[in-house]
Design a protein that fits this description.
The complex is a heterodimer.
Chain A (H helix, E strand, L loop, with lengths): L12 H9 L5 H19 L2 E4 L1 H16 L10 E5 L26 H8 L3 E6 L33 H8 L5 E6 L5 H7 L2 E4 L19 E6 L2 H11 L29 E5 L13 H16 L3 E5 L7 H16 L18 H12 L2 H14 L5 H21 L5 E5 L15 H5 L6 H6 L3 E9 L2 E9 L4 H14 L20
Parallel strand pairs in A: 2-3, 2-4, 7-8, 7-9
Antiparallel strand pairs in A: 1-3, 4-6, 5-6, 5-10, 9-11, 10-11
Chain B lengths: L3 E12 L38 H13 L7 E2 L1 E5 L9 E5 L8 E6 L5 E13 L3 E3 L8 E3 L6 E7 L6 H18 L11 E11 L9 E6 L2 H20 L7 E6 L4 E4 L12 E2 L6 E2 L2 H9 L5 H12 L3 H8 L2 H14 L2 H18 L11 H12 L5 H12 L5 H8 L7 H14 L1 H9 L2 H18 L6 H13 L1
Helix pairs in contact in B: 2-3, 5-6, 6-8, 7-8, 7-9, 9-10, 12-14, 12-15, 13-14, 14-15
The chains are: A alpha/beta, B alpha+beta.
C-alpha cells in the first residue's frame, strides 16, 4: 500500500517523517488532520482534557519552516499528545484533578522541552486517572475515558487518555507515565505499544510526582519503532532530576532489526498459572503463548524461570506508593496555587476543606493509606518492611537476568473491563497491575506489545528487560511486529459511538 | 535548701552562606523584596525536584572537620512531614537517621579561664522554611518564601553544659568556628545563627536527668543567657513548690524576661520521617574529605595556641583576640607593624573593643587601619606621647583626623621630656604647696611614697598631661629628698 492510498493518521511516525521530508504533505496539514479527528471522535472517547489547536498549528508551521531551511529536529512536525501530568508552559496542567483545574504551568517539563526542541507538535493534554492513581481512568475529574475498541469498557490507566488517543489515532503518539503499570496496562487494553523505561532513564522534572521512586515517563505509540523514535528524544540525563542517570543514550532505532537468534527468553512460572486465583484468563494465556512461539520462530530460546516473590509485589507496592504519594501531595494545600475552598474559617479549615474538596476519592484513599504506613508505631511494620520486600523482589529479577535476556508474560490478567465494574472494589482494581507492578519496584524497563484479542478486546504481551536494555526490548518488539500485524489493527470509530469492533 | 544542677543541651541552626539555595538555583541574599528569591522549586510547583547544592555539602563537611567529628561516608536526606503555610512542599527536607556529621568534640573557654569539652551529638543539613508575616495584611497572613530552601546545618550538642554561661561560651565557640570557616556570616540579628536550648534541672549529685523543656528560637548571646537563667529559676521554683516540670516547648520573651509555653498543638506532631525519594543518598569518599580538610583555615584553638606561643600573650588575651577571625587578623597586622605584640593586644582588646562596642559597630567597619594603630603604639613606646594622651589621639584617629603624627603635631600633644622645663614646673607646684612638702619631709619612708603621689596630679595637670611621667618622677624625688 503506498502512502497515497492511506489516510495520514494511518501512517506510522517513521512513515510520516519520510512523507514530511519528501513534501508529500506539510506538518500543518498533518496537524489539522489530527485536530479534525479529535473534533470528530473525542467527544465520545474523552481522551483529551485540553486541546491546544492554536499552539499546535503554530508549532506545525514552525516545523514546516524549519524543514524548509534544513534545521528540522528529529520529530519535526509530528503531532503528539502529552499526558496531563507533564507541565506545559502557559497551558493548564491538571493531573486530571479538581485540585489543579485552574493551574496554568509557568514552566515546561524536561520531557516537554525535549519534544519542543525536536520540533514535535503538541496537540493537547490527555486524560488520565487523577494524579495517575488508578488502572481504569475512572478517577479523572474530567470524566472517564472510553476504550476505542469497546466504549462500554475502560481504556486502562492511569495513562488511559494517551492509550485511547493513540489507539483511535487522535495523535501520532503520546507520552505516558508508569508508576505501577500506567503505561503498559492501558497500552495492552487499547492495543498499542507502550514502553516503561528503566527508572532514571527519562527525566521526571516537571512530571507531577505520584510515587517518586517508582514514577517513570515513557512513550505510547502504535509500534516499537515509533516508541524508539520517541525514546531517542525523551531519554537522557537531566541535571534538574537527581534520580536521572548519567549514561549515554543510544540511538534506539539502530538496533531494531538485530537478529533474535540466541535470545534467551524467560517465562516466570508464577505468571502462568491459569485457572488458579491469579485471575489470568485462558484467552490471554493462549494469546501470550502463541506470541512466545512466534518469538521462538524468530530464533529465541525459551526457559522457565522463577520470580519467587511475585505475590508480594502488589501489597508491597500498595504500601510504598501511597507512602510516597501522601508526602508528595502535601504541597496541594490551597495556599499558593490550585484549588482553595471558599471562606475558610481558619488555617486548619483552609487545609482540610481545600484538600477534601479538591481531591477525589481514590487520591484521598491513598493519602490516608500512605499516611498510616508512615505513622509512628506503624512505619516499621509497613513502610520499612515493604522496602525490605522491595529488595527481595529486585533480587529475584537480578538472579533471573543471569539466566535470560528478556522475561516475557502477559501485561494484564484480563482484557478491558466494563466501566464501573471494578471501581467500587479497590483491591480487585489493584490486582489489574499484578504483572506490571514488580517491574516498577525493581526499576526495570518493560514494554507491552499488542498480541491478539480476547473477547474482541486487545491483549498485551509484556517483555521485561534488564537495566537500560530498552534497546533490546524495542529490538524484540520490532522484530515481533514485523511478523505479526496485531499492532496494525485499529478500532472502527463512529462519531455517534456504537458498534466498535476489531477490524 | 536543696542544691540544683542545671543541664543544658543546645540545638544551633546555622544558615550557610552559599550563593544559591540548598536544593534550587535561587539566590539567598538577605533582605530582598518578598518572594523575589523563590523559584519554581522553592514554591513547590507541581513537578519540581530538588538537586543538592554541592557547596552546602562541602560547608557541612568543613564544619564537621572543624569539630573533630566523623564525616559520614553515606548520609541520607529525609522528609519531615507537616503542614504550615511557609513550608511550601508540606515537608522539610532534612537528615534524621544518617546525618552528614557524626559525633565530635569541642573545647569551650569559660569566663574563669578554664577549658571544658562539650560533645557534639551530630550535625545535619536541612532546608530553612519561609516566613509568615502577620502584620500589615488586614487580618490575613503574608507568606515570604525568600528564606525557603536556604541551607542550614543544625548542630546538636549532648546535654553537657551546666550553666547559662557555659551555654553562651559554647554558642560563641560555634559562632567563632562557622565564621572562621567562612561558611556562615553568623549574623544572629538576621537569623543566620539561631538556637534552641533544652534545659532541665536535677538535684546536685543526681545522675538521672530532670524533665527537659525546649526553649525555641533564641537569637542573641545575651538572650540565651537570660532565657536559660529565667527558665532554670522557673523550674527550680516549680519543683521546690511541689510542682512538676512538664516536657514542652516554650518561647522566651526578652521584653518581659520570661519563658512561656508555645501555643499548644491539638496533638503531638507525627512527622512521618522517611528517606526523600527525590534525592539519592549522599556518598562522600575519603579522598574528598581529605581534600576539604586541606583547605581548612587556621581555626580558633590553633590560632590561640599560636598567639600564646608566638606573641607571649596570656591564654585569656589570646582567647579574646581569637574569638573572631577579623579581630585576630587585625591584631596580627598591628603587632607586626608595631613590633609590640603585648601592647597591641591591650589596645585591640581594650580601647578598640570598647570603642567598637560603644559605637555599636564591628571591626570590619572600624575607621582606624591596623597600620595607624601600630603607629600610635610606636609613639607610646618611643615616649613621644603618654598612654593617657594616646587615648585622645586614638579618638581623633577614629574621627578621621589623620595620621598619628599629624594629630600629635596639630594638637600639640607631644610629651614634654625637656628637664629644664619640667624642673620649672615641679618647682612651681612645690612652691604652691609648702605644707604638703613639710609633711612629706617629716614623714618616714613607709608613708613618703603615698605623700609624693599627691604632687603628680597637679604637675601633670600643669603640663596639660604632656609631661613625661618617668622624668617628672625623677625630678620630683630629687627635689623632695634633696
Amino acid at each position: 500500500m503506498s502512502l497515497h492510498d492511506r489516510s495520514l493518521h494511518e501512517l506510522t511516525i517513521a512513515e510520516q517523517l519520510q512523507a514530511l521530508a519528501a513534501k508529500k504533505f506539510s506538518s500543518e496539514e498533518l496537524t489539522l488532520h489530527y485536530l479534525a479527528r479529535i473534533e470528530k471522535y473525542d467527544a465520545q472517547l474523552n481522551s483529551y482534557i485540553t486541546i491546544t489547536p492554536e499552539l499546535a498549528i503554530e508549532a506545525a508551521r514552525a516545523a514546516d519552516a524549519a524543514r524548509a531551511t534544513g534545521t528540522a529536529g528529529a520529530l519535526a512536525g509530528i503531532p503528539l499528545a502529552q499526558k496531563d501530568i507533564f507541565c506545559t508552559l502557559g497551558v493548564r496542567t491538571s493531573c486530571a484533578s479538581k485540585m489543579l483545574d485552574n493551574f496554568i504551568s509557568p514552566y515546561n517539563a524536561t520531557v516537554v522541552e525535549k519534544f519542543n526542541a525536536a520540533g514535535a507538535v503538541c496537540l493537547g493534554k490527555t486524560n488520565m486517572d487523577e494524579f495517575a492513581m488508578g488502572s481504569s481512568n475512572e478517577s479523572s475529574f474530567y470524566g472517564p475515558v472510553k476504550n476505542p475498541w469497546n466504549t462500554d469498557c475502560v481504556p486502562g490507566g492511569s495513562s488511559g487518555g494517551s492509550a485511547a488517543a493513540v489507539a483511535a489515532q487522535l495523535c501520532a503518539a503520546a507520552t505516558g507515565t508508569d508508576t505501577g503499570g500506567s503505561i503498559r496496562q492501558p497500552a495492552a487494553l487499547c492495543g498499542i505499544t507502550g514502553l516503561k523505561p528503566t527508572y532514571g532513564r527519562v527525566s521526571r522534572y516537571g512530571m507531577i510526582a505520584f510515587a517518586s521512586s517508582l514514577d517513570q515517563g515513557g512513550p505510547m505509540a502504535r509500534s516499537a519503532e515509533d516508541c524508539a523514535l520517541l525514546m531517542n528524544v525523551m531519554a537522557g540525563f537531566d541535571e534538574r532530576d537527581s534520580t536521572s542517570v548519567q549514561r549515554a543514550v543510544p540511538d534506539y532505532t539502530s538496533v531494531l532489526n538485530n537478529s533474535l537468534e540466541g535470545l534467551r527468553i524467560g517465562l516466570p512460572k508464577e505468571y502462568f498459572n491459569s485457572g488458579t486465583d491469579s485471575g489470568l484468563t485462558p484467552e490471554i494465556e493462549r494469546a501470550v503463548q502463541t506470541s512466545i512461539k512466534e518469538l521462538e520462530n524468530l530464533g529465541a530460546t525459551i526457559k522457565e524461570i522463577s520470580l519467587p516473590h511475585t505475590e508480594l509485589a502488589v501489597p508491597c507496592y500498595y504500601v510504598i506508593a501511597p507512602a510516597e504519594c501522601s508526602s508528595n501531595l502535601s504541597r496541594f494545600d490551597g495556599v499558593r496555587y490550585g484549588y482553595r475552598c471558599t471562606d475558610p474559617k481558619d488555617l486548619f479549615d483552609l487545609y482540610s476543606r481545600s484538600r477534601d474538596e479538591g481531591f477525589g476519592e481514590e487520591v484521598k484513599r491513598r493519602i490516608l493509606v500512605g499516611t498510616y504506613a508512615l505513622s509512628a508505631g506503624f512505619v516499621d511494620a509497613y513502610y520499612r518492611k515493604a522496602q525490605q520486600v522491595r529488595r527481595l523482589i529486585q533480587q529475584d529479577f537480578v538472579a533471573a537476568f543471569n539466566e535470560v535476556d528478556v522475561i516475557a508474560g502477559p501485561t494484564t490478567p484480563s482484557p478491558a473491563f466494563k466501566l464501573g465494574e471494578k471501581s467500587s472494589d479497590p483491591v480487585t482494581m489493584y490486582l489489574e497491575d499484578i504483572y506490571t507492578i514488580a517491574v516498577n519496584l525493581a526499576g526495570l524497563p518493560a514494554i507491552s506489545l499488542p498480541t491478539g484479542f480476547a473477547d474482541n478486546k486487545p491483549v498485551g504481551l509484556q517483555l521485561i528487560g534488564n537495566y537500560f536494555a530498552e534497546d533490546k526490548l524495542l529490538n524484540v518488539g520490532h522484530r515481533f511486529q514485523q511478523v505479526t500485524d496485531w499492532h496494525r489493527r485499529t478500532p472502527a470509530l463512529h462519531k455517534s459511538g456504537t458498534g466498535v469492533r476489531a477490524a | 535548701m536543696m542544691l540544683w544542677e542545671t543541664v543544658i543541651g543546645l540545638e544551633v541552626h546555622v544558615q550557610l552562606s552559599t550563593q544559591s539555595k540548598i536544593f534550587s538555583g535561587a539566590g539567598t541574599e538577605f533582605g530582598a523584596a518578598p518572594n523575589t528569591q523563590a523559584c519554581a522549586v522553592d514554591l513547590a510547583l507541581p513537578g519540581t525536584l530538588p538537586v543538592l547544592n554541592e557547596q552546602a555539602l562541602r560547608f557541612a563537611i568543613m564544619f564537621g572537620l572543624a569539630m573533630n567529628a566523623k564525616i559520614a561516608e553515606r548520609s541520607v536526606f529525609e522528609r519531615k512531614n507537616y503542614f504550615y503555610p511557609d513550608l511550601p512542599k508540606g515537608y522539610q527536607t532534612s537528615q534524621m537517621d544518617s546525618p552528614i556529621v557524626g559525633p565530635g568534640l569541642v573545647d569551650i573557654e569559660l569566663p574563669d579561664g578554664t577549658v571544658k569539652q562539650v560533645r557534639l551529638h551530630h550535625a545535619h543539613l536541612e532546608e530553612d522554611a519561609g516566613k509568615s508575616l502577620h502584620e500589615d495584611f488586614h487580618g490575613q497572613s503574608g507568606i515570604d518564601l525568600n528564606r525557603a530552601g536556604t541551607p542550614l546545618i543544625e548542630i546538636v550538642s549532648e546535654p553537657d553544659m551546666r550553666s547559662a554561661e557555659e551555654a553562651v561560651a559554647y554558642l560563641k565557640k560555634i559562632h567563632s568556628i562557622v565564621t572562621y570557616l567562612g561558611i556562615s556570616d553568623g549574623e544572629m540579628s538576621q537569623g543566620s545563627l539561631r538556637c534552641d536550648a533544652n534545659v532541665s534541672v536535677r538535684p546536685k549529685g543526681e545522675e538521672k536527668y530532670g524533665t527537659r523543656v525546649e526553649i525555641k528560637n533564641i537569637n542573641s548571646f545575651r538572650f540565651v543567657e537570660k532565657a536559660i537563667k529565667r527558665e532554670v529559676l522557673r523550674q527550680t521554683e516549680l519543683i521546690e513548690d511541689g510542682g512538676k516540670v512538664v516536657m514542652e516547648t516554650r518561647l522566651y520573651d526578652p521584653d518581659k524576661d520570661e519563658t512561656r509555653p508555645m501555643r499548644s498543638k491539638e496533638e503531638a506532631n507525627d512527622y512521618r520521617y522517611f528517606p526523600c525519594p527525590d534525592l539519592l543518598p549522599v556518598v562522600v569518599d575519603t579522598a574528598t574529605i581529605e581534600q576539604i580538610r586541606a583547605t581548612l583555615p587556621e581555626l580558633p584553638d590553633a590560632k590561640k595556641a599560636r598567639f600564646i606561643e608566638q606573641y607571649g600573650l596570656s591564654p585569656y588575651d589570646a582567647a579574646v583576640l581569637t574569638m573572631e577571625r577579623p579581630i585576630a587578623d587585625y591584631f596580627e597586622v598591628v603587632a607586626a607593624a608595631s613590633g609590640e605584640p603585648k601592647l597591641s593586644a591591650n589596645w585591640v582588646s581594650g580601647e578598640l573593643a570598647a570603642k567598637l562596642n560603644k559605637e555599636n559597630t564591628r571591626i570590619t567597619n572600624n575607621p582606624i587601619q591596623p597600620e595607624q594603630l601600630a603607629g600610635l603604639i610606636k609613639r607610646i613606646v618611643d615616649n613621644t606621647i603618654s598612654g593617657k594622651i594616646a587615648k585622645q589621639v586614638f579618638d581623633a584617629m577614629w574621627d578621621g583626623e589623620g595620621h598619628v603624627d599629624t594629630i600629635i603635631e596639630t594638637r600639640g600633644l607631644k610629651q614634654v621630656s625637656d628637664t629644664g622645663a619640667l624642673e620649672k614646673l615641679v618647682d612651681d607646684v612645690l612652691a604652691f604647696h609648702p605644707e604638703q612638702v613639710e609633711q612629706y619631709r617629716a614623714a618616714d619612708d613607709s608613708k613618703r611614697k603615698k605623700l609624693a603621689g599627691f604632687f603628680v596630679g597637679p604637675i601633670m595637670k600643669a603640663s596639660k598631661g604632656q609631661a613625661n611621667p618617668g622624668i617628672v618622677n625623677q625630678i620630683l624625688m630629687k627635689k623632695l629628698n634633696g
